[in-house]
Amino acid sequence: MIERDWNIQPPTGKCAVTGRPFRDEEVYYAILVETPEGLARQDFSAEAWAERPPQPRPVSFWRSEFKVVPPEPERTIAQDDAESLLRRMIEEGDAATENARYILAVMLERKKKFYHRDTVQHEGRPCLVYEHKDTGETFLIIDPRLRLSELHLVQTEVADLLRPRREEQPPGGGADPAPGPDEPPAEAGGQGTG
Prior knowledge:
With about 190 residues, the protein is of the alpha+beta class. It is about 20% helix and about 25% strand. The strands form 2 sheets. Strands 1-7-6-5 form a 4-stranded antiparallel sheet, with helices on one face. It has a 3-stranded antiparallel sheet with strand order 3-2-4.
């Protein structure tokens, strides 16, 4: 049983056959193949695509456009956005987050940050093949086949994870603050004297 999604390497930036680097906005073809280490990506220039060796047979393939990625500005965001949360969940590989990873990937597809390239069967489970719009990275996300009755719970869970965090609680686990100058101290045991 699959217990994780895969973060396949990003585009290599060069043709697997000729070794020629791709130019900005050049059309190329990408494939996913099974290797002893798992799924691997290979990229081919349009010229080399027709002469690609027949083996290994790809699990999935698609046509894309190479983009030279500008250096990413330094991020100082305190809370997780959908993409960084998905990346963290994939890296952690916790099977309990499978449904949330699926919802996050669909959110990123709707925001046009991910392109759905294919749906493949891998180890008997449906996997969605996504390509990141800006970086060209490939993500395989397990489709958990959520029932309509489950969607609301998972969406609520994801919304809670994306919500900005409150300031850290003071030491003592958030105990009641000390009474103000005009308030009497609370009686021990909650009983008044009387």
